[in-house]
Design a protein that fits this description.
Number of helices: 10
Helix content: 25-40%
Radius of gyration: 52 Å
CATH class of one domain: Mainly Beta
CATH superfamily of one domain: SPRY domain
Shape: elongated
Structural class: alpha+beta
Number of strands: 23
């Protein structure tokens, strides 16, 4: 390399400031050379300028211009450096795949190239390289170690090797490009940029792999949820079909029992009527015989004979009281029919309601309809608040069902002096006394005209003595209401629902990883958190907030569940 540079040493091409090969070299009046960006930065202060090497003082900043001679030599030096790097890479490539750079001039059998010409953009074997050592015009060409794809390493505009990289424009440059269009940009050696870019690439690749893994995990989670959903759906279908089949069977049993009882009552009535008819007919026959005897007697004219025969006439026995028997058309059967009709009407109403609910569900209503609210309300639990967790600025009712903000600082300081690690000190929060795990539960809170509040569920280990960070890892699954919109606690500034609600239902499916909030009056779903990872008990969480958004004195009240119609 020294011979190629006419005996110059490597140190003569290094800037005294950055200790790297000159980048747009300039000469000071005292004769020292520096990179233009380096000396410009060195003289950026307003005081008088000094030479960094000899400390020559200049009352005002000298007018510096690029030293083209040194720039040419430095460029050649960089070319040799790049050649060494390229040749090393090419050598490694050849060592890896067993191939060499072929001569571009050989016609039949391609000989291995011994040099590549930057100006010609051609690789030559020893025979075809000979004109470059003989012809005067070719002697000035720059020869480097054989490199494949040399055209990609040379500037298309200036025909010089690409040796630098502009970090502002992300483009590879030759020294002429760097001096012309990138004088005010940050330009670094290509090798240095390559190392930095590879580091950045490794970091970016790592992030991409993380994103890929996140998406694969999400796909796996969705597939697992889909599998569980399918199994749950099949189970629900089987249970529903079984329940409806049992209902049909019960109806059929009741139908058969109704027919049997009605037939028995009809047969009993028929038998009773048959007995009565036979007895009445028997009496009628006897009475007919007596009537015939009486008619014969009435035809006798002889008084003595009449009296003698009258004593012989057989008078009918005591006859039945016909008024004691009446066919009352079985009032028991009629009453039974009325009961059946009433039950059938009620069952038809239930079936009609079930059909309406299924239609709303099939059109996308889901749990946002009254049927969904009715479903979750069956998991109602009794919630009472825990005074030990309440912020000192909160007031709880005697039944531990209401919480209200109070700016009573005297009371605040009295409670704040009590050492209690369970108490919220920075957040205006209070927890429910009982925690829930491995089950479903539901409760309702009346918020009335409040202008701000926070409501949800929190893990038992939620921080009490410091401000909560509104992130997904805060341990709090809650909605924050402000004036006329709801935000998820873990996503500040992103509304999930607009409008107000006076009565809010909170439903938690611990095993299913779900927390849902309902507008009870409207029987509508406000928002749901899905795929939650619960690992400890969950407690109801209430925060009545202060008066930042207007009058907000109304309490939050845990109320009995009002079942949806």
């Amino acid at each position: 390399m020294a011979s190629s540079l006419g005996g110059f040493s490597q140190d003569q091409f290094l800037c005294p400031i950055c200790l790297d090969v000159f980048d747009r070299p300039v000469s000071t009046p005292c004769g020292h050379n520096f990179c233009l960006p380096c000396i410009s930065s060195y003289w950026s202060e307003p005081q008088a300028c000094r030479c960094p090497v000899c400390q020559q003082l200049y009352p005002r900043r000298p007018d510096l211009k690029v030293n083209t001679f040194i720039s040419e030599i430095a460029s050649h030096f960089k070319s040799l450096q790049l050649t060494d790097v390229g040749a090393g890479g090419a050598a490694r490539q050849r060592a890896g795949d067993g191939s060499a750079v072929p001569c571009d001039v050989c016609a039949d059998v391609k000989e291995d190239a011994v040099r590549s010409c930057v100006e010609c953009l051609t690789s030559y074997c020893a025979v075809h390289l000979e004109p470059h050592s003989r012809a005067a015009g070719l002697k000035r060409h720059t020869l480097v170690e054989p490199v494949a794809g040399l055209e990609d390493r040379v500037c298309k505009e200036h025909g010089r090797l690409l040796t630098s990289f502009c970090t502002d424009d992300d483009v590879v440059l030759c020294d002429a490009c760097a001096s012309a269009g990138h004088a005010r940009h940050k330009v670094v050696p290509a090798q240095q940029a390559h190392v930095a870019m590879r580091r950045r690439l490794a970091s970016t690749e790592g992030k991409v792999q993380e994103e890929i893994q996140r998406r694969m995990d999400k796909v796996h989670s969705v597939k697992e949820s889909l599998r569980q959903s399918k199994a749950e759906t099949e189970g629900l279908i089987a249970n529903s079909v079984q329940e409806l089949a049992e209902l049909v069977f019960a109806i059929q049993e009741n139908q058969a029992e109704l027919v049997r009882l009605t037939d028995e009552r009809q047969k009993a009535s028929e038998e009773e009527a048959d007995r009565f008819i036979r007895e009445v007919e028997s009496e009628a026959t006897t009475l007919q015989k007596t009537a015939a005897e009486l008619w014969d007697l009435s035809q006798t004219e002889d008084g003595l004979i009449f009296l003698q025969r009258y004593s012989e006439v057989t008078l009918p026995p005591h006859t039945m009281d016909l008024s004691t028997f009446s066919l009352n058309r079985q009032p028991e059967v009629q009453h039974m029919h009325r009961c059946v009709s009433k039950s059938v009407l009620e069952l038809r109403a239930r079936l009609s309601q079930m059909s309406s609910d299924m239609k709303r569900y099939s059109t996308g209503g889901g749990t946002s309809t009254g049927s969904g609210l009715r479903y979750v309300q069956q998991y109602q639990v009794d919630v009472v608040l825990d005074l030990n967790t309440a912020n000192p600025q909160l007031i709880l009712s005697d039944n531990w069902k209401e919480v209200q903000y109070s700016p009573d600082f005297e009371r605040y300081f009295q409670r704040a002096q009590i050492p209690n690690p369970s108490m919220f000190s920075e957040h205006l929060g209070v927890l429910g006394r009982k925690g829930f795990a491995s089950r479903k539960f539901y409760f309702e809170v009346f918020v009335g005209r409040k202008t701000e509040f926070c409501l949800g569920v929190a893990v038992a280990s939620i921080p009490r003595r410091r401000e909560l960070t509104r992130t997904f890892s805060s341990g709090l699954w809650a909605l924050w209401f402000m004036k006329d919109k709801f935000e998820a606690f873990d996503s500040p500034g992103v509304p999930v629902h607009r409008g107000k609600a006076k009565r809010i239902g909170v439903y938690v499916d611990y095993e299913g990883g779900q927390v849902s909030f309902f507008d009870v009056n409207a029987a509508a779903l406000i928002h749901s958190f899905y795929d939650c990872d619960f690992t400890e008990k969950l407690h109801p969480y209430l925060n009545p907030c202060d008066n930042e958004y207007g009058s907000n004195w109304d309490p939050m009240i845990i109320v009995p569940v009002r079942h949806a119609d």
